[in-house]
Amino acid sequence: MRAVIQRVKAAKVTVLDELVSSIGPGLCVLVGIKASDTAKDVEYL
């Protein structure tokens, strides 16, 4: 499990060219989870 936190002026999420969500200034968090991650991994983050 990995997480990347980045300060942004603006950010958006698109899926298949469709806008899902967007924000102005703030924090953008990308979390990667795999099948073998456990509840202990979540608590650590």
UniProtKB/TrEMBL annotation:
<dbReference type="InterPro" id="IPR023509">
    <property type="entry name" value="DTD-like_sf"/>
</dbReference>
<dbReference type="InterPro" id="IPR003732">
    <property type="entry name" value="Daa-tRNA_deacyls_DTD"/>
</dbReference>
<dbReference type="Pfam" id="PF02580">
    <property type="entry name" value="Tyr_Deacylase"/>
</dbReference>
<keyword id="KW-0378">Hydrolase</keyword>
<dbReference type="GO" id="GO:0051499">
    <property type="term" value="F:D-aminoacyl-tRNA deacylase activity"/>
</dbReference>
<comment type="similarity">
    <text>Belongs to the DTD family.</text>
</comment>
<dbReference type="GO" id="GO:0005737">
    <property type="term" value="C:cytoplasm"/>
</dbReference>
<protein>
    <recommendedName>
        <fullName>D-aminoacyl-tRNA deacylase</fullName>
        <ecNumber>3.1.1.96</ecNumber>
    </recommendedName>
</protein>
